[in-house]
Design a protein that fits this description.
CATH class of the largest domain: Alpha Beta
Radius of gyration: 22 Å
Helix content: 25-40%
Oligomer: single chain
Strand order of the largest sheet: 10-11-12-13-9-14
Strand content: 5-15%
Number of strands: 16
Order of helices and strands: EHEEHHEEHEEHEEEEHHEEHEEHEHHHH
CATH superfamily of the largest domain: FAD/NAD(P)-binding domain
CATH architecture of the largest domain: 3-Layer(bba) Sandwich
Distance between the termini: 6 Å
CATH topology of the largest domain: FAD/NAD(P)-binding domain
Number of helices: 13
Shape: globular
Structural class: alpha/beta
Amino acid sequence: MTTAVKVIGAGLAGSEAAWQCARRGVAVELWEMRPVRSTPAHQTADFAELVCSNSLKSESENTAPWLLKEEMRRAGSRLLEIARECAVPAGHALAVDRATFAARVTDALSREPLITVRREEVTQINVDKSNEDQITIIATGPLTSDALSLEIARLSGSTHLYFYDSISPIIEADSIDMSKVYLAARYDKGTADYINCPMSKEEYDRFCDALISGQSVEERDWEKLNYFEGCLPIEEIARRGRDTLRFGPMKPVGLKDPRTGRIPYAAVQLRQENLRADSYNLVGFQNHLKFGDQARVLRLIPGLENARFLRYGQIHRNTYINAPTLLSESLQMKKHPAVFFAGQICGVEGYVESIATGLMAGIHAAALARGADPVCPPRPTAFGSLTHYVTHADPRNFQPANITFDLLPPLESRIRDRQLRHRQQCELALEHFDTWLEQCGTDTPDFAQSKLVRPL
């Protein structure tokens, strides 16, 4: 006896994929190895735990992250809906109370009658040369277990690629010296929800010197530190030049200090971590320093002299497949069409992108379970552009990607004004997206009853 769809991994992608199958009347087995076996980065056994930051990127209209989330909203993303219910103040970004978010996702999926949760590690993927392959969505994320990694390597016949991602530190709110900081949003965009720690040139230079001389965690023999450019540790950024931090995570532009009326030489931003507002994370301050050095260096930041750390920055391994070689645009394996990949393991980077690919894999797997062919989202959409990149990039130099306008096809007519160009790209994308949704069918109760797919 097997279920119609087996989802391996209850992270962001797997949770969304399971929900999308269930809402279409398809029975799902959702496998999650935690708490039987944990990972170096997770702290709980809840589904969809956010291990790096708590931000789901910009909510500003006609930006690339907004477009991807708008498509997800129109497609009925359950995780995006829950994220909005768990939102914490974050200016123009969507950030969540990560503990509440994970708990609500876990509860929602556990209560769904068509989803059966299995708390076990999966080490084998059932495929053969017959037509009875188990429909499977692999959404095990960047921390896929060693045993399953070997199984995926066996199945794909190719070597995995690895890069290293980082976790930002979190501090207790009442350990911040509020007399030395100020509340502001960059360019006064959105509400003033960020705590800003201003630095003079002297303070910045002293901080950089301490950061560069800090002792990093020792690299293991089997490690080759190949960082994703979008998540470089701050000490790696600092080593690239004296002012690189001032043009990166410590960029002061648009952060006028209301007490002085001036923009500081550099600034560190703190973002609210949960609904209670009793903890804050240091935005973009992922690092690879030993905990003792980390505390010493970060306490050089004005306002954080007595900071109490709830979590230090860390490095963890991210695993992803060579998707351009292995996957079609429906996220199915070319050699094993009953096997889908979703989330960071398929070569996307970011929370929102992971949820989006889980949503797509869920829709496609549900179609396959009903005996239909998956219908891929059109190229002009954010969904279509993201999967197009993942499956058509140069396999010799494949790197995970966030959603950006660079991934979308150019408009037929050239528009110099960037804001106008992006608005028109968004309008075109959503027009194509709505048409695709109609082609994919619906999830009304009548549809679910008439098309219900029970265990085989």
